[in-house]
Design a protein that fits this description.
heterotrimer; A alpha+beta; B alpha/beta; C alpha/beta; B: alpha/beta; Glutaredoxin; Ubiquitin-like (UB roll); 4 domains; five-stranded mixed sheet; 20 helices; globular; C: two-stranded antiparallel ribbon; 6 helices; 7 strands; elongated; binds flavin mononucleotide; binds iron/sulfur cluster; binds FE2/S2 (inorganic) cluster; iron (chain B)
Chain lengths: ~240, ~500, ~190
């Protein structure tokens, strides 16, 4: 007899929903047709719970928990948009803008940027926190792609994409605190890292204008966040063309 | 004066820095090398280098200074109100000599507990009511029980010796003064939870502790006292956040020391995915005494929810700086005024006044002088917006403005943030800049509102304890010293 | 007996151009024929595109401010317009975030500072000939060391981001204010870049 996958019932914003017992709260939210903003999460990659945008309130639980890494439980009562959460999210988005150098007017991702999208979603019309203007640089050493650190939000989607899907592990995080940056190889120019296969998956995964194709000019980036999930599924389900 | 039969000369970091080598040389020249023993911390660090003279009739004299020129009073409450459990051998035993440790009872509790079923050992711990001394105060017995209950035969015991709070040196004293005690505590834990492998993660800034541990591990293994339990040392690279348990485990694995969301807790999935028991140095160091004298004996000390004793590193604006071990529930007043001698007199002769006591380092808060009768236990301090923390206790006098203290700790957190999650990485930077405005007296009313809002956000949304508690020094000083922030608003009456 | 009908006083409207590229004003001009309606509804008392008045007047009801605060003149005008206006709107990304003019802040705190670095680059390094720093006290305003968004200099009542905000959004925004209603909020009113 085949084992029936156990499922659990929970309530999200007053709406009942039933999902597999090993689902995350984020999956449950989405399966209920609801939404919570995310940035570091990308379907197909290991979740890390770093951007904190997907935090939700769980009744009877003292702390806010990130939906992307929290497993559902029977009877869980989830709230995705309390006034408290909305206030925190707006502050978070302001902090993202203030910690980097985001000049959307001439960004390759203008109009197709997940950070912009969440800024609009949370109603950020200005940042109450002063911009920090960190002195960062642009790595244009790769033949096909570039990395503009000014626009990097340290979501590590590129790191995980390259490591988990492409298997090349070109990227890592270097330094700490506000000095953190994505590094290629052993903190080398990207173009010098021999492990890079030039597959472009990291560019596809990047939610902002940080990673880009060199042929793209302002507002021309076409992100492909769905590719991580497609490739991960293809691998687990052995969905290859030659079958 | 009858000559002492032997001398104990402190050879721990603070006394070394104060000239312990010269003092020892002098004592050796006077009394002969066989009558001078190197020991760990003798407690009153501020008067170091320290040496104790033991007399035939049991009398002990204490001296400070490179020429032992200051006679100190061992009957001062600083010493008499101490209750040495974790530190029972520290200052008596030669930390470099296994024979001396064995002669003073090291490893007897381990030998005895090997005769017990692991379950019985865990039960003894539960009976003791011991709670983790690394800061969070999680019940140790329950943690051991959790790890013991995990399936599989490969489990790991890890000791967190990354002590990084500014003003904290309790663990260092144990490591430098009685390293075998830690090894014994870990070996008992290994027996209780079914682990055969152990790691000690020590910060690189503790070279003497590392050296003593190396020697102790080598000696214990050569002599076979650990009975197959293998302990390895791992040296941190200077990141405060590596004291957070999941970051510490990543670091041991060779990865970047960044925390990860829990669950899973290390007890379920820790080092290389194995069930892992991770405890603080002082936690492990309390274990041999508990098993030797029984959980009930230990549980009889302290308060209803905070049992046993706690080691504190007493520093700041205080007459007697040093290391104390007291029963839980002792009042802050007893510690600061009676034992510590209060704030030293000002240079102009006026009386020094305690303004507040800072506990818990960058994760803690300030208890104002008016509340000095607060007993030190986990709940009482938490109710005041501070925490027990790992044991740093810094006395603050009137010369320090609270926004400045808050800024210091915020700067510490901003510099030590691992950068993984946004609220801590970017929020601490903004908070430090906001606090600058208060320190420089150019803040606005809106800054005060923003300060509180952002503190709330960073606290509620950060991934690990570092960010979650980084606002505590601000919130606690706002709670008790709000007027100082209001006075720093530009245009406010001075 | 009927009281004689006194037409309500027209709303006194101003637009100000600080450190911006004038693109927000161009977008405003893209309102084309609606500008006639606006002109009928308000009295334009100060504007680089619709008025010759050189001094910011007293008693302004509504003021749209394009651009960041980048030099001494910007700073002076910002303080003045705040003191003389009821409602101040940060108009466009440069006012809202300092945007492109703010990029020289990257060199604030770096060797030489932002003022020196940007002048050096613009007037010396990139000069074909006759390289020299502009110097005309009283005529060319001094640059501030940091370019600031408007709300870091004065209190701002509303924000209308965009580089530039589209003509439709400017219109929706002004129509609401002219009706005496709060400006529309929500996602349709927000864009960056
Ligand atoms: C930022 C941060 C730093 C920490 N540093 C230490 C430390 O230096 N030593 C320590 O024992 N625990 C430290 N902890 C607590 C550990 O994560 C963990 O709770 C503790 O080692 C568990 O041992 P215990 O139960 O014996 O206290 C730290 C926690 C955080 C969040
Ligand atoms: S990355 Fe996004 S938010 Fe940043 S400048 Fe580009 S479009 Fe704007
Ligand atoms: S292009 Fe491919 S291999 Fe190269 S860094 Fe990006 S994901 Fe990795
Ligand atoms: S480069 Fe892009 S994908 Fe990588 S961390 Fe930065 S923002 Fe995220
Ligand atoms: S709270 Fe700070 S230290 Fe902890 S994970 Fe986040 S950035 Fe790192
Ligand atoms: S999406 Fe969950 S923390 Fe970033």
């Amino acid at each position: 007899m085949t084992q029936v996958l156990p499922s659990v019932s929970l309530q999200i914003n007053g709406q009942p929903c039933t999902v597999a017992a090993d689902a995350t709260v984020l999956q449950a939210i989405r399966s209920a047709g609801l939404h919570v903003p995310t940035l570091c999460h990308l379907d197909g990659l290991t979740p890390v719970g770093a951007c904190r945008l997907c935090l939700v309130a769980l009744e009877g639980h003292p702390k806010l928990e990130p939906a992307c890494v929290t497993t559902v439980a029977e009877g869980m009562v989830v709230h995705t948009h309390t006034p408290e959460l909305e206030g925190y999210r707006r502050m978070a988005v302001e902090l993202f803008f203030a910690e980097g150098n985001h000049v959307c007017a001439f960004c390759v991702a203008n109009g197709a940027c997940e950070l912009q999208d969440v800024a609009v979603e949370v109603g950020m019309d200005h940042s109450r926190f002063p911009y920090q203007y960190p002195h960062r640089h642009v790595d244009a050493s790769h033949a096909l792609f570039g990395l503009d650190h000014h626009r990097c939000i340290l979501c590590t989607r590129c790191v995980r994409m390259c490591d988990e899907i492409e298997g090349a592990h070109v990227w890592d995080v270097g330094y700490r605190g506000s000095a953190c940056s994505i590094i290629a190889g052993l903190d080398q120019p990207w173009g010098e890292v021999e492990a890079c296969t030039s597959c472009g998956k990291c560019v596809d995964a990047c939610p902002t204008g940080a990673l880009f194709r060199k042929q793209d000019a302002t507002a021309e980036k076409q992100p492909h966040p769905e590719r991580a999930q497609q490739l991960a599924a293809a691998r687990t389900d052995h969905r290859w063309r030659n079958q | 004066m009858k000559a002492a039969i032997s001398w104990r000369c402190c050879d721990a970091t603070s006394c070394r820095a104060a000239g312990a080598a010269a003092l020892r040389q002098r004592l050796v020249a006077q009394h002969g090398v066989e009558r001078v023993k190197s020991v760990g911390c003798l407690r009153l660090c501020g008067q170091g280098p320290l040496a104790a003279a033991d007399h035939e009739d049991g009398r002990v004299e204490l001296f400070g200074g490179v020429a032992a020129e200051r006679q100190l009073d061992p009957e001062h409450p600083f010493f008499t109100l101490q209750r040495s459990v974790v530190l029972e051998r520290c200052g008596l035993v030669d930390p470099g000599c296994l024979d001396d440790a064995l002669a003073q009872g090291a490893y007897t509790a381990l030998a005895a507990c090997r005769q017990l079923a692991p379950k019985a050992v865990v039960e003894e711990l539960e009976r003791s009511g011991l709670r983790g001394r690394g800061g969070a105060g999680y019940p140790t017995g329950r943690k051991w029980q959790l790890v013991a209950a995990q399936p599989g035969s490969s489990k790991v015991v890890v000791c967190n010796a990354d002590e990084g709070d500014p003003g904290a040196f309790m663990d260092r004293a144990v490591l430098e003064g009685d390293p075998h005690r830690l090894l014994e505590g870990m070996a008992i834990a290994a027996h209780a939870v079914g682990a055969s492998e152990g790691f000690i993660y020590v910060r690189a800034e503790y070279p003497l502790a590392i050296e003593r541990l190396r020697r102790a591990i080598a000696a214990a293994e050569t002599r076979g006292v650990l009975a197959g339990f293998a302990i390895q040392l791992r040296i941190g690279a200077g990141a405060y956040v590596c004291g957070e348990e999941t970051a510490l485990l990543h670091s041991i694995e060779g990865g970047r020391g960044t925390p990860r969301p829990r669950p899973p807790y290390p007890a379920v999935s820790g080092l290389w995915g194995l069930p892992t028991l991770i405890n603080n140095v002082e936690t492990f160091a309390a274990v041999p005494a508990i098993l030797r004298q029984g959980g009930a004996w230990y549980g009889a000390m302290g308060t209803a929810t905070s049992k046993g004793t706690k080691v504190f590193a007493l520093s700041g604006a205080i007459t007697h700086t040093g290391l104390i071990e007291v029963e839980m529930g002792t009042s802050l007043r007893t510690i600061v005024e009676t034992m510590g001698g209060g704030v030293p007199a000002n240079p102009n002769g006026s009386l020094g006044v305690v303004k507040a006591v800072q506990t818990g380092g960058p994760s803690g808060g300030c208890v104002p002088a008016a509340l000095l009768d607060t007993p030190v236990d986990y709940e009482s301090l938490q109710a005041l917006g501070s925490i027990m923390g790992s044991g740093g206790m810094v006395v603050i006098d009137e010369s320090l403005a609270m926004p400045e203290l808050a800024r210091y700790f915020m700067g510490f957190c901003a510099a030590e943030s691992c950068g993984k999650c946004l609220p801590c990485r970017a929020g601490t930077v903004q908070l430090e800049q906001l606090l600058d405005r208060f320190v420089e007296r150019r803040a606005t009313g809106a800054d005060l509102v923003q300060l509180e809002q952002l503190c709330g956000m960073v606290k509620a949304t950060s991934l690990c304890g570092l960010g979650q508690s980084a606002p505590n020094p601000v919130l606690s000083t706002l709670r008790f010293f709000r007027a100082e922030y209001e006075a720093a608003i530009a245009g406010a009456a001075p | 007996m009927t009281t004689p009908q006194v037409p309500p006083p027209k709303l006194r409207f101003a637009t100000v151009w600080l450190a911006g590229c004038s693109g927000c004003h161009m977008s405003f001009l893209d309102l084309d024929e609606w500008l006639f309606e606006l002109a009928a509804a308000v009295e334009i008392v100060y504007s680089p595109v619709a008025s010759d008045i050189k001094v910011f007047p007293e008693g302004v009801d509504l003021c749209l401010v394009e651009g960041a605060v980048a030099n001494a003149d910007n700073l002076e005008l910002a303080l003045q317009l705040r003191a003389r206006s009821k409602v101040v709107v940060s108009f466009g990304d440069c006012a809202v975030s300092a945007n492109v003019p703010g990029l020289r802040n990257l060199w604030a705190g770096v060797a030489g500072g932002s003022r020196q670095s940007v002048l050096e680059r613009g007037y010396v390094e990139l000069a074909d000939r006759g390289a020299q720093h502009p110097h005309a006290p009283g005529i060319v305003p001094e640059l501030l060391e940091r370019v600031l968004p408007l709300h870091e200099v004065i209190a701002v009542d509303h924000f209308l981001p965009g580089c530039p905000p589209s003509a439709e959004r400017i219109r929706a925004f002004l129509e609401a204010l002219l009706r005496g209603e709060p400006p529309p909020e929500g996602q349709a009113m927000l864009s960056f870049g």
